[in-house]
Amino acid sequence: MQSICTLESLKPSKQVNNLFTQLVKLCILPSFIDISDLPVEVQLMRESLISLCGRAEGFLELEFANILTNIPEPLEHLDLFPYYGNYVKLASLEHEILYDHGMAQPKKIAFLGSGPMSLTSIILATNHMQSAHFVNFDIDKSANNVAHQLISSNAELERRMKFETCDVMEMREKLGEFDCIFLAVLVGMNKEAKMKILEHMRKFMKAGGILLVRSAIGARGFLYPVVDEADLAGFENLSIFHPDNDVINSVILVLKPFI
């Protein structure tokens, strides 16, 4: 933690990459830590670490998105991204969970917090949901521009995928347009912000709409914000999955009830 906090820059470098790789390896070890039981000072340290991890992740994705957009057929080389394999595993898992609950081929999907690479949307659209239309939302216009440039080399994918710059808390009627919404783990960096976002989505999603929330458990909660089942009041809980391998994120699937 101290080594990461004293870094002069979080942009990709040998030192930055090594430190965060060590942190990830440490956090995915079997752990029985209950984040809610941690002392206040540790909670504050954890929130700071999550913020640093989020910023470093953004820099890493942006660097590789820019690299890919400058080579021919960039979508054929997504595996250049160091964590591409993790995204493939997570997207496959999420599709399997959706399939188990009758949502294998939703018509219209929103991904909130898609970033400069939009890897989950690309993998799902290419490998699992070949007829679905995706709208990727991010608060950062430059991230959306790079992500759109990345998929523009594929006419069929570009036809089914849009990018919009928007704060999720400013989305109202638009949230009601989607059969399925993915909430990226870093949308809402602390408990208070995450709770406000979840309540906002419960209010404006359409009845019968599916929400897939990414979370974390145990020591993985030092990398990403944690969402508990109790945080999803007003939704019907369909499934909770906690990984025990190198996939970091937990997956919570809920439905907005009709009543």
Automatic annotation (TrEMBL):
One of its GO terms (molecular function) is nicotianamine synthase activity. SUPFAM superfamilies: S-adenosyl-L-methionine-dependent methyltransferases (SSF53335). Its EC number is 2.5.1.43. One of its GO terms (biological process) is nicotianamine biosynthetic process. It catalyses: 3 S-adenosyl-L-methionine = nicotianamine + 3 S-methyl-5'-thioadenosine + 3 H(+). Belongs to the nicotianamine synthase (NAS)-like family. Synthesizes nicotianamine, a polyamine which serves as a sensor for the physiological iron status within the plant, and/or might be involved in the transport of iron. This is Nicotianamine synthase.
